[in-house]
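Hey all, sorry for the wall of text incoming. These are the two entities for the joint prediction.
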Amino acid sequence: MNKNVNIKKIVIDKPLKLDCGQTINNYSLAYETYGSLNEKKDNAILVFHALTGDQFASGINPITKKEGWWFYAVGSGKAIDTDNFFVICANVIGGCMGSFGPNEVNPDTNKIYGTNFPVITINDMVNAQFNLLNFFNIEKLFAVIGGSMGGMQTLQFVSNFPDKAKVAIPIACTASHSAQNIAFNELGRQSIMADSNWANGDYSNQNKNPNKGLSVARMAAHITYLSKNGLQEKFGRKLQERDDLKFGFDADFQIESYLRHQGSVFVDRFDANSYLYITRAMDYFDLIKEHNGNLPHAFENTKTKFLIISFTSDWLYPTSENKEIVIALNAIGADVGFVEIESDKGHDSFLLNVPKFLNTLGDYIKTTYSKN
Amino acid sequence: MKQEFQIISDLIEKNTRVLDVGCGDGTLMEYLKHNKKIDIRGIEISKDNVQKCLSKGLAVIEGDAEKDLLQFPDSSFDFVILSQTLQAFLSPEIVIKELLRVGKKAIVTIPNFGFWKVRLHLLFKGTMPITKNLPNEWYNTPNLHVCTIKDFYNFCENREIKLDKSLALQNEKISSINEFNLNVKNLSAELGIFLIER
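and here's what came out:
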């Protein structure tokens, strides 16, 4: 990680008891904000990032020098309009963009945590980020929004703090991580751990880096973010800078080259142990079990207005799982809207330029805020 | 404003919970929201319409009333509205049952296939009637189960569904339907509006 870049951080001195039983103290939370908080302090939106995201939702990410991960949705004049809203986004704990994570130095040992870092959960991430309200002196957020793992945090936030957000928009997510998703995450983790440079998680202390393992994990995961039709349309069987097959194992096909590229740029910005910890947090996410099989109970006391969005070609967090949340909310008479957006871009639809999605999201936020 | 919506609005009491089944682009929902202090939800099958509703900030879920009403608990709404949609369901009978389970009362409006113009169309032209309220050809109509005011009236009587109010609408004139004028209204009205309960 480039240590020269100025990353905004708050240090939270209020102890946080993690689900694993450990308590953490004086831990840091890296954050970024966009737009400005109005006088009434009623225009704040907390955006939660997904597995490999970070606090740089909009603008140019100072580390990667590329557009922020939610470039299409967050910014001036966009769906989450920073001309009107104060957008806060923090790096989750367990992450690797400045928040308390496995690549930080353990003050007790003066060594990098590695796998001595405590296992964290979505609940822990949300409880840590709740401190941002205090820091910015915000009594109640206008909205909490996130896709994928960000959607899980959105659900957990409302469940934990039923009167702290007027609107909640969980996108392309689930209330309970499925066996298939746990399986894909396990594939990624095993890939990292199979790299000898992982060194039982101690690679940073030994100046090693399990880039190959992490890169394969990213390649496998990347496939799950796309759809079969999307891949076929974009790549088909097109060859990579060659006229014919080479009868070898170089990247003959464009899709191979594309995946290799995705893997190689990922290792420059992401920490392998963070990947283990965050995928674990997703796997442990089960709001249904947390409420003894009764999902409606998770939202029982909330006045929060929900908008749930899924995508037709998302097979990782399919519409059926998003609908389960809708059904639970209807069971308790909550204020809930739901739409499945047509898109062939797979799970990644929420991150990409999908006008029907972005327009619906933007109009909903704008209208709901003005009718406030 | 469609007069039908005005009538529906008059049937609904203030401070109630209402579900609009097949809410379209949300016009009725917005109208009711402005005119009555009610907590209103919608369910709609067309993605385009759902997106329009959500853009207006309305609590609308994409779904098929024939399957997705199941998720609402018994008597979770004071009123359930079904405006000119009954004829499009595969099984109107089951939908009515569901409406009366989910809602304490239901408001059902039906385009009247017994209207004299419809009858004349079939009698003289000999082709399937096309009307203002039922504008499709026989081969592409979504309306699988068209019925008359009399059909619906009899259906309620037979099923022991309480008809709290039966109204006929013709040329912006509203009148009451009862057992004595049923045949006349069945001929003269374009739209029937019924407030029913279990």
